[in-house]
Amino acid sequence: MSINFSNLQFQYQKYKSDIDANIQAVLDKSNYIAGEEVNNLERELKGFTGVKHAITCSSGTDALLLAMMALDIQPGDEIITTPFTFIATAEAIALMKARPVFVDIELDTFNMDANLIEAVITDKTKAIMPVSLYGQPADMNSIQSIADKHNLKVIVDGAQSFGSTYNGKTDSNFGDISTTSFFPTKPLGCYGDGGAVFTNNNEYAEKIKMMRVHGQSKQYQHKYIGLCGRLDTIQAAVLLAKLPHYKQELKNRQKVANLYTSSMPDGVITPTIKLDRSSAWAQYTIRLDNRNSAQIKLKDNNIPTAVYYPVPLHLQKCFQYLGYKQGSFLVAEQASKKVMSLPMNPLLTKGQINYIAAQVKECFL
To answer: Are 66 and 57 spatial neighbours (Cβ–Cβ below 8 Å)?
Structure first.
């Protein structure tokens, strides 16, 4: 049996007629930038999330930059975040000439440990940036409470978690500004780079809309220094075709996760989803002590795996200037040595999951 990690081709074939028709409509109109599909997508995203403003952009990384620009983050400002995430989280902070300040993670959720935040707040701290890792929101009530107490902003990096929930609300509703990514392998992905910024604040929304088009208030009139951060019309057309199926895909992802969890052998630590949350299941990530040998054995049996992430950010060469070292964040370092993500997509069958689980079990014999 051969297993596909994300199965994008199968998904495309499933929605092919709608996707092709939407793309062809853009080609026929040749309105590749700021076409009506972009506005239509933003309207649909608002309806899906219940957020007042949904503003599409060119990537999840640019979404973070736009969020910080809207909040007027300045050089030397400190933003508290997690070292156990994709580099874009802290990279965007550094690109703003601000300083990433890391706190360790919870081992069960892999998300920022809110209990550690207050200890690193200084007079330079301007914001907290939690990450909804693998698709599950962080402890947003605790994080928001700390932010309110210290007059800090909250930017949610929801690149992996679009459609997840916290206390019954989609994670796009939390923080001052929330972001997501529509990279092809994300739970809701386009066919290139894409992202979105969400906020219930009118002022931030208007600023972000200008910032994504070079700070432009109207053509050739520039109120701010911005960037070229628009979502192109073809990507909007793809997302418009896929979004109507997304609620069902989230349900199917949950079914896949449930089957995995019930099938995993002893010796494997399966994901923990808190009772007040749901996950978009960007990844199904287990922990095991013999990861390296397990990956080899699974590959030999045509099962792809991935490690998100093998080197925590505080140990990356580009962040040496922050002064962290081995042992600075022990939980993140431990997780980086044990996590392994199994194939996850809403089209996995029970037979495929049973096969994967059986091969994982073989890794312990």
So the answer is: yes
Q: What is the pLDDT of residues 128-161, one digit of tens each?
A: 999 999 999 999 999 999 999 999 999 999 999 9
* pLDDT value of position 365: 66
d(CA 197, CA 67): 7
Bridge partners for 128 per DSSP: 80, 154
In this prediction, the residues of the chain whose per-residue pLDDT falls under 70 are 365
With helix as H, strand as E and coil as C, how does the chain read? CCCCCCCHHHHHHHCHHHHHHHHHHHHHHCCCECCHHHHHHHHHHHHHHCCCEEEEECCHHHHHHHHHHHCCCCCCCEEEECCCCCCHHHHHHHHCCCEEEECCECCCCCCECHHHCHHHCCCCEEEECCECHHHCCCCHHHHHHHHHHHCCEEEEECCCCCCCEECCEEHHHCCCEEEEECCCCCCCCCCCCCEEEEECCHHHHHHHHHHCECCEEECCEECCCCCECCCEHHHHHHHHHHHHHHHHHHHHHHHHHHHHHHHCCCCCECCCCCCCEECCCCCEEEECCCHHHHHHHHHHCCCCCECCCCCCHHHCHHHHHHCCCCCCCHHHHHHHHHEEEECCCCCCCHHHHHHHHHHHHHCCC
Q: Is 197 within 8 Å of 63 (Cβ atoms)?
A: yes
Q: For the chain, which domains are there?
A: 8-243 (3.40.640.10), 246-362 (3.90.1150.10)
Residue 128 C-alpha from the chain's centroid? 16
Cis amide prior to 32 (ω within 30 degrees): no
Report how far Cα 192 is from the mean position of its chain's Cα atoms.
16
The CA-atom distances, in angstroms, between 106 and each of 85, 131, 147, 330, 352 are: 13, 12, 19, 11, 31
What pLDDT does residue 1 have? 80
